[in-house]
Design a protein that fits this description.
Blueprint: H1 21-24, H2 28-37, H3 40-60, H4 69-98, H5 103-109, H6 116-131, H7 134-141, H8 148-165, H9 172-194, H10 201-231, H11 241-267, H12 272-278
Helix pairs in contact: 3-7, 3-8, 4-5, 4-6, 4-9, 6-8, 8-11, 9-10, 10-11
Length: about 290
């Protein structure tokens, strides 16, 4: 991680967003240093997660599945509300910068403006990657089909967000906005399913589509970063090669895995017996599984 730590000052937004005192006073530099000094926590948590995941599956193999319907609804509603509110707080700055001079470039390479709402809720979203590991507990305890994509996505997202938070690159605006936007729809969908509300297939397909587009966007901004950092590094002062390598390592496999999920779920026609055997699709692709 041999790269320069760049301060990102928090200023009052010039585009009319009202910032609460707790957002305005968020100690961004302090928490960036904490994440940098203690990034290993994400590795330890991921290791424990894997142990509990496979240990839990072994424990449940000879036991009847739990229903947990009410708790599942509460869980999904809570994460949906958090994601929606976080998106409403982080999106204004992103679109303000995007629509301004050199907008696309600045969202990737520079911090021309940064406010407390974006800083605080980006931090909340980073912490939420630990909370979201609880999604897997419901799958294991309810004895539902667990896809590799599900737990691979949880582990790599948690570790990459924690590792990259220290450097706090401008491109992370893309990640927090896309993540909170997609999760707003995804957890709302899960909440409806847990309430036994039938959701039309096109909606599930829409959510899987925006998940895939999120990954494609991640690859796209990484390719642009590589090009501009190679051709004119002075014009991209707030990006570093370490963060770029992490971005490629995360988003390229994600794009492949989510493309496969989309094809398996909506393009390739499965026989009824095969669909029942597979238990439907599951988490992180909206997976058309039965939620309750």
């Amino acid at each position: 991680m041999a790269t320069k730590f760049i301060e990102v000052p928090i200023v009052e937004p010039s585009f009319g967003l009202k910032v609460a005192d707790f957002e305005r006073n968020f100690p961004l530099t302090y928490w960036r240093q904490v994440f940098g000094d203690w990034w290993q926590i994400s590795a330890y948590v991921s290791g424990l997660y894997v142990l509990l995941l496979f240990g839990g599956r072994w424990y449940m193999s000879s036991r009847a599945p739990f229903k947990l319907n009410k708790l599942l609804t509460f869980w999904n509603v809570g994460l949906a509300i958090m994601s929606i509110y976080a998106f409403l707080r982080v999106a204004p700055e992103f679109f303000w910068v995007m629509l301004g001079k050199n907008g696309f470039h600045n969202t990737i390479c520079e911090w021309p403006e940064h406010n407390g709402a974006t800083a605080f809720w980006s931090w909340i979203l980073a912490l939420s990657k630990i909370i979201e590991l609880g999604d897997t507990a419901f799958i294991v305890l309810r004895k539902q089909n667990l896809l590799f994509l599900h737990w691979y996505h949880h582990i790599t997202t948690l570790m990459s967000w924690w590792v990259m938070y220290h450097w706090y690159e401008p491109v992370q605006q893309w990640y927090v906005v896309m993540n909170s936007f997609v999760h707003s729809f995804m957890y709302t969908y899960y909440a409806l399913r847990s309430l036994k509300i039938r959701v039309p297939r096109p909606i599930a397909m829409f959510i899987t589509t925006i998940q895939l587009l999120q990954m494609v966007a991640g690859v796209t901004v990484s390719i642009y970063s590589y090009w501009i950092m190679s051709e004119n590094p002075a014009s991209c002062p707030h990006r570093n090669w370490f963060g770029l390598k992490v971005s490629f390592a995360i988003y390229v496999p994600y794009t492949i895995l989510f493309a496969k999920l989309f094809i398996d779920s909506y393009v390739v026609k499965k026989k009824p017996a095969e669909a029942v055997k597979n238990g439907g699709a599951q988490k992180n692709g909206v997976y058309a599984k039965k939620e309750a």
